[in-house]
Design a protein that fits this description.
Elements: E1 7-10, E2 13-16, H1 27-31, E3 34-42, E4 45-46, H2 49-62, H3 71-83, E5 89-97, E6 114-121, H4 127-132, E7 134-140, H5 155-166, E8 171-175, E9 181-184, E10 188-193, E11 196-199, H6 210-221, E12 226-228, E13 237-244, E14 248-255, E15 258-259, H7 267-281
Parallel strand pairs: 7-8, 7-14, 11-12
Antiparallel strand pairs: 1-2, 1-6, 3-4, 3-5, 5-6, 8-9, 10-11, 10-13, 13-14, 14-15
The structure holds pyridoxal-5'-phosphate (PLP).
Length: 285
């Protein structure tokens, strides 16, 4: 069977993904001067699309790029890119760079932003994978001091993922200088400690994950005790989990080769995963 032709959106036009190319002097290519978003869609229903577009606008504002389109126009485009591609469970990727211009660190103010959208299949872990849980390693955080911006400059995260791959685990968790778990390379992290769901507070050291927000909202709605505070693995962690648009919530059962509790996914984690999946599949967008 031949591969389906995928459609991308580039600077105002839908086109075959194969032919969608950007100028070699684009500042995204030369300087990683840009930001991005990933939004999930299941059977035509987007999960927290407004929140993703609001974060995109905040990321753009933080690096002084004007959003090329209104949020409403962006939302309409996101829906179109979904409809023009063959995935019922999709992840829509949106990237905005400052645009193309003669190479200079200081950006000319006259540049027009480059905007790209693609749609790909949303990964779905098997039930065996969920039952087994993920494994992670920890490393000192080597990233910059504006992790709240969803920047396309992801070199540290790529190195973290390479280390995870070498260690045959799924994710690297970044630790601050005191050994607190901040987040993963592409995920937020949570622990259950003394029956309380704990996650690092929002600051410059973590990305404000849209899934993280949803996890906290759902936990609160269902009466779980939630605390946003720095936490470390030495605190008697009974469950650990990670969250992201592409993972929903996944249990993390081994960290640095040590089992968390009995090395099996915890009941709070599995419950949160279920609530999250129900939210993704509910008619609300
Ligand atoms: C560093 C980092 N933290 C957290 C997340 C999870 O964010 P979200 O739930 O919005 O996908 C991501 C997603 O790419 C990320 O890159």
């Amino acid at each position: 069977m031949s591969e389906p032709i995928l459609t991308a959106w580039l600077n105002g036009q839908f086109m075959p993904l194969e032919g969608a190319v950007v100028h070699i002097e684009d500042r995204g290519f030369q300087f990683a001067d840009g930001v991005y978003e990933v939004v999930a869609c299941v059977d035509g229903r987007f999960l927290d699309l407004d929140a993703h577009l609001a974060r995109l606008e905040r990321s753009c504002a933080a690096i002084r790029i004007e959003l090329p389109l209104s949020r409403d126009a962006l939302a309409a485009l996101v829906r179109q890119i979904y409809e023009r591609n063959p995935f019922s469970r999709a992840m829509i990727y949106i990237q905005i760079t400052r645009g193309a211009g003669p190479r200079s660190h200081y950006p000319a103010t006259s540049l027009s932003p480059t905007m790209v959208m693609t749609s790909r299949a949303l990964p779905q872990p098997t039930s065996e994978r969920v039952a087994q849980g993920y494994r992670a390693i920890t490393r000192p955080d080597i990233r910059w001091k504006h992790c709240e911006i969803k920047s396309i400059a992801l070199l540290a995260s790529i190195m973290g993922k390479q280390e995870a791959h070498d260690a045959e685990v799924d994710e690297t968790f970044w630790l601050d200088e005191c050994g607190h778990v901040l987040e993963g390379c592409s995920t937020n992290t949570f622990a259950v400690i003394d029956g309380t769901l704990v996650t690092h507070p929002l600051d410059h050291q973590v990305l404000g994950g849209i899934t993280r927000d949803l996890v906290l909202r759902l936990a609160g709605q269902h009466g779980l005790t939630v605390v946003e505070r720095p936490w470390s693995l030495s605190e008697g962690v009974s469950e650990c989990m990670l969250s992201s648009t592409t993972n929903a919530v996944m249990p993390v059962c081994y960290i640095d080769g040590q089992a968390i509790a009995d090395g099996k996914p915890g009941s709070t984690t599995l419950q949160l995963r279920q609530w999250l999946i129900a939210a993704m599949e509910s008619p609300e967008t």
